[in-house]
Design brief:
Blueprint (H helix, E strand, L loop, with lengths): L14 H43 L2 H24 L4 E7 L28 E3 L2 E6 L3 E2 L5 E5 L6 H5 L8 E10 L2 E9 L5 E4 L2 E2 L7 H7 L15 H7 L6 E6 L5 H15 L8 E5 L2 H7 L2 H4 L6 E5 L9 E3 L3 H8 L2 H12 L12 E6 L4 E7 L3 E7 L3 E7 L3 E7 L2 E8 L3 E7 L2 E8 L2 E8 L2 E8 L2 E8 L2 E8 L2 E8 L4 E6 L55 E5 L2 E5 L1 H12 L9 H16 L8 H16 L2 H10 L5 H7 L3 H7 L6 H11 L4 E2 H14 L20 H22 L5 E4 L7 H9 L5 E6 L9 H12 L4 E6 L1 E2 L4 H14 L7 E2 L8 E4 L4 H15 L4 E5 L4 H7 L7 E5 L8 E7 L1 H6 L4 H9 L2 E9 L17
Parallel strand pairs: 2-8, 3-5, 10-32, 10-33, 11-12, 11-31, 13-30, 14-16, 15-17, 16-18, 17-19, 18-20, 19-21, 20-22, 21-23, 22-24, 23-25, 24-26, 25-27, 31-32, 34-35, 36-40, 37-38, 37-39, 39-40
Antiparallel strand pairs: 1-3, 1-6, 4-5, 6-7, 8-9, 28-29
Helix pairs in contact: 1-2, 5-6, 9-17, 10-18, 11-12, 15-18, 18-20, 20-21, 22-26
The structure holds adenosine-5'-triphosphate.
Length: about 950
């Protein structure tokens, strides 16, 4: 480790006056830096004004130049203003180097001292002094006033140790606020030397910056460690970005801090290369919130996205937890095979909306509206030049589609499945209501009505040039068809089946106002952690099949494909592993082939050219038929990941798809968990996998709309809007970004195989930094996860690093945690704590009630520390624990054991170690995490199951 040579004494006659003198030396330097910064700000402002003037010229060339200048100057100004707070924090005093070469930052590049830099009598002169800050500043002669912390010349500030000091004699951390220097802390790297600076002996002040930083009270946000990065950490931060940088280290060794500083370093090193974005994957939203201020404090924003593993899929957010056994099934590789089967199997269930959720869309020149609601699924769409209405409600599934020129209505309401569609130039109505399945279609040039209502099955269709009515009612089956040139009525009613035909005359037309589609859905209640385990599942939604018959009229003939033929075509189209949604054109082609074969037209021409022409007009004829379009939509719907996931909520169905992959208990638990309202982190990885399995069909590109701002020339008009649109564009690009140039995975030990696949897709061409600690893994099968990690990282070579020093926990707490480590991962080495506080962990047992005891302990710690207190409980207790602490203020928080990952507090209360350890197969490792969160004080509260001894020490923490 970077052992600090902490010189506790000040060299000089009076300790305070030496300190004051050293502070005033640094103040003088800071004043010079500020004067220079002010000059730079004026320059930046001048650039902005100049750019504004050029903008008024209005030629395209001047506009482009102005935009570039405004952009550059804006960034510059913004950075300067931002960096004004505490941006100068370090200084190194160096011996003369081996050669006299200078780098681009104006500093000498030699790492080792020149021969003779140290005289035989052990004295030496300081040949170079460098100040280190958050950005680099040169004076007007291009000499370095401040070196950027990421520049090569700053490396000795972090790398130098008493064992390997290089040229550094003294390393100083400067504390300042705004323009005022508050203090200095020195570490002497060559304590054996008597060094002179400008003729005077080098002064050494304070205990060293590291200790000062570690002793500070914690808030709810992480601080950067830029002033006290240690040598072994610096090696990781500055490791070349090739391939994979792999970092392991115990709790508190600075893995998260190092990962964040590395992101800033990489951007500094090669901004162009990382314009592709850096993604930092964090285990929880709490850790994202805790860490997200660090990069801006290092002067980096915009190009780095910090996202929780449950927020990687746009439009979805993990809000629920799975029980450990459900998580194990969902996160393992086995789930991949289940999802592949589900994606193909879901096609057979009919339109996507039937599978769960609700979809509604309405389009039309005149108007269209659509609504769908259902416990398990509803789909409704309306399209029309005039107006179209479609609504579907159902427990199982309901579908209503309408398309027409002037007006149309389609409704379906069903216990298990109903379909209603109407198409017409004039107007068409299709209504269906029934107990198990029904179809109602109306297709008309001017008006058609079709309705069927049935306990068993009903079908009604009406078609005519002018108007047609068809209705069928019956207990088990009824059939009513109407077709005619003008108008027709047909009804069939009966117990078994009824068929009626008629023909009549009529005419209809309609117009409707424009409106857009809407959809709403209600879903079952949410279950919390552990509740998705055993017990009765809520009623499973009944499956609804896709259409089982295709009927079209082409070349004057009625053609029909029956269920068996359709099934054969589907199987044929699904062959191979191509994404399901991309196979629709292939399925469509196979349908047309089958219809073409049935039409007998193939034999009409022997001339290949004429035959091809005939075939293409046949295809055109069929594919322009509304009934064909509607059929294809229902028979090969575009599947969404959410729809397939919702389909898996049906236990019977999931059982089919997971046969011989998941056991019945797992099927029950997974299906049950998927019926909750919301997603877990594991569901998010499943959604992402499904997106890859299903694919996204190519959509016709939207025409770029003309931007009226392109025509403007005056900067006054342009600036605010321009800036806004630039930012918007950057945000949009960041949102649309699905792949990154560098991916950093924090707490990598926790990623499940399915999560590794999800993260892997975001860094297929990236370089990687992976930081983690196997001893803190909450995933039950670390070997399987390691395999998945290796697959995600591919064959890229790994550079491995180990961090060995615990900067968070005092030795007293680290020692206690090491006992659990020995149980959780026998043989693994705990990191060594860098400091000790002399305060032993406190043990207590439940007094009146668990809640009251914990509350009293938390209140006690709040009195003892200035910063935060964390109360860590088993996951199933976290809501209860929040109630125990009500009213104690913002400095204290209740956390489930899994939520505590990566966080830290001044003091912690760990509640019932046995309960935490018993909660999952990885429980001991989770307990190890819980015990290593405190920077100052730890209290352990034991309940009965902890079997505390006479001093309150629980069984798990005894020697
Ligand atoms: N060089 C340093 N100077 C000052 N503070 C440091 C240094 N290194 C680490 N720390 C502090 O130590 C604490 C632990 O760091 P961090 O959270 O990055 O560790 P970690 O290895 O990610 O821990 P865990 O595995 O438990 O999540 C933080 O408060 C961090 O600021």
């Amino acid at each position: 480790m970077a052992a600090q040579a902490q010189q506790e004494t000040a060299v000089g006659s009076d300790h305070d006056s030496v300190r004051d003198r050293e502070i005033s030396v640094e103040q003088e330097h800071l004043d010079r830096v500020y004067r220079r910064l002010e000059e730079k700000i004026h320059e930046a402002e001048f650039l902005m004004n100049d750019a504004a003037k050029r903008g008024q010229v209005g030629t395209p060339g001047a506009l482009a130049e102005r935009d570039a200048q405004v952009f550059r100057a804006g960034i510059h100004l913004n950075r300067l203003n931002n960096e004004f707070e505490d941006f100068l924090f370090g200084r190194i005093d160096l011996l003369l180097g081996k050669d006299g070469k200078k780098g681009p930052d104006g500093a000498y590049t030699a790492v080792e001292p020149a021969e003779g830099a140290v005289r035989d009598d052990g004295t030496a002169d300081i040949a170079e002094t460098l100040h280190i800050g958050r950005i680099g500043v040169l004076d007007s002669e291009y000499a370095p006033l401040v070196i950027d912390w990421r520049a090569p010349a700053a490396a000795p500030f972090y790398r130098s140790t008493p064992v390997d000091p290089g040229r550094v004699v003294r390393r100083r951390v400067i504390r300042s606020k705004g323009r005022r220097v508050l203090g200095v802390e020195d570490d002497l790297m060559r304590p054996e030397l008597k060094a002179f600076l400008d003729g005077g002996e080098l002064a050494v002040i304070g205990d060293g910056a590291l200790m000062a930083a570690l002793g500070q009270a914690r808030s709810h946000t992480m601080r950067d460690i830029v002033a006290s990065i240690q040598a072994e950490q610096d090696l990781v931060i500055r490791a070349p970005a090739a391939s994979v940088t792999y970092v392991e280290g115990g709790p508190g060794t600075g893995k998260t801090a190092v990962a964040l500083h590395r992101a800033a370093y990489l951007l500094y090193q090669d901004r162009r290369r990382y314009s592709g974005g850096i993604l930092i994957v964090s285990p929880t939203p709490l850790l994202v919130a805790y860490t997200e201020g660090v990069l801006p404090s290092l002067g980096e924003e915009g190009q780095v996205a910090i996202r929780a593993i449950g927020s990687l899929v746009d439009g979805a957010e993990a809000t629920l937890y799975d029980s450990p056994s459900t998580a194990r099934a969902k996160g393992s590789y086995r789930m991949l095979r289940v999802l592949r089967k589900a994606a193909r199997g879901a096609l057979e269930l009919g339109p996507a909306g039937m599978l769960g959720g609700a979809d509604g869309s309405g389009t039309g020149a005149g108007g269209g509206s659509a609504s769908g609601s259902g416990a398990s699924g509803a789909d409704a769409s309306g399209a029309g030049a005039g107006g179209a209405d479609a609504s579907g409600t159902g427990t199982g599934g309901a579908n209503g589609t309408r398309s027409g020129r002037s007006a149309g209505n389609g409704t379906g309401s069903e216990m298990s499945g109903a379909e209603a569609s109407g198409t017409g130039v004039g107007g068409a109505n299709g209504t269906r209501s029934g107990r198990s399945a029904g179809n109602g279609t109306g297709s008309e040039m001017s008006g058609a009505d079709a309705s069927g209502s049935e306990a068993g099955e009903a079908e009604a269709s009406g078609s005519g040039t002018s108007g047609a009515d068809a209705s069928g009612t019956g207990t088990s089956g009824a059939y009513g068809t109407r077709s005619g040139r003008s108008g027709a009525n047909g009804a069939g009613a009966g117990n078994g089946s009824g068929v009626g035909t008629a023909a009549a005359n009529g005419r209809g037309s309609g117009t409707a106002p424009a409106s857009s589609g809407s959809a709403s859905a209600t879903a079952p209640t949410q279950l919390s952690f552990g509740d998705d385990g055993d017990g009765e599942s809520p009623a499973a939604p009944a499956p609804v099949g896709p259409p089982t018959r295709l009927r079209v009229v082409a070349f004057g003939r009625r053609l029909e494909l029956e269920a068996a033929e359709l099934e054969r075509i589907r199987r044929n189209a699904l062959g191979g592993t191509a994404p399901v949604n991309l196979l629709r054109p292939r399925a469509r082609k196979l349908l047309l082939d089958a219809l073409w074969a049935q039409s007998g037209a193939a034999t009409r021409h022997t001339d290949p050219e004429l035959a091809a022409e005939l075939r293409s007009s046949f295809d055109e004829d069929v594919t322009s038929e509304d009934s064909f379009i509607a059929f294809l939509d229902a028979w090969w719907p575009e599947l969404t990941p959410r729809a397939v996931l919702a389909a898996m909520a049906d236990e019977r169905r999931l059982g089919r798809w997971a046969r011989r992959i998941l056991n019945p208990g797992e099927v029950r638990r997974v299906a049950r968990s998927l019926r909750r309202d919301g997603h877990s982190v594991h569901d998010i990885a499943m959604l992402d996998e499904l997106q890859a399995i299903l694919g996204t069909p190519a959509r016709p590109r939207k025409k770029r709309e003309l931007d009226p701002l392109d025509q403007l020339t005056g900067l006054e008009e342009l600036m605010p809007v321009r800036e806004e649109s630039q930012r918007e564009r950057a945000e949009r690009l960041a949102q649309e970004r699905t792949e990154y140039a560098h991916v950093i995975v924090d707490e990598a030990q926790d990623l499940t195989p399915m999560q590794w696949r999800m993260v892997g897709r975001r860094g297929r061409h990236a370089t990687w930094t992976v930081v983690g600690d196997p001893a803190q893994s909450s995933w039950s099968d670390p070997d399987e996860a390691a395999e998945a990690r290796d697959e995600a990282l591919g064959t890229r070579p790994r550079r491995r690093f180990e961090l060995t020093v615990n900067y968070r926990n005092p030795a007293e707490i680290a020692e206690l945690a090491a006992k659990v480590l020995a149980l959780a991962m026998p043989g693994s080495k705990a990191p060594s704590a860098v400091r000790s506080t002399g305060v032993e962990p406190r043990f207590t047992v439940v007094q009146k009630s668990l809640g009251e005891t914990v509350r009293a302990e938390a209140a006690r710690l709040l009195d003892l520390v200035d910063g935060t207190v964390g109360v860590v409980v088993a996951m199933q207790r976290r809501e209860e624990a929040a109630r125990w602490l009500a009213g104690l203020g913002e400095r204290v928080v209740a956390l489930g054991s899994l939520e505590a990952k990566g966080l830290e507090y001044d003091a912690t209360v760990v509640v019932s170690p046995a309960e935490i350890a018993d909660e999952s197969p990885a429980g001991l490792r989770v307990l190890y995490v819980a015990l290593t969160r405190a920077t100052q004080q730890l209290t352990v509260v034991s309940a009965d199951r902890d079997q505390p001894d006479g001093s309150g020490v629980p069984d798990l923490l005894r020697d």
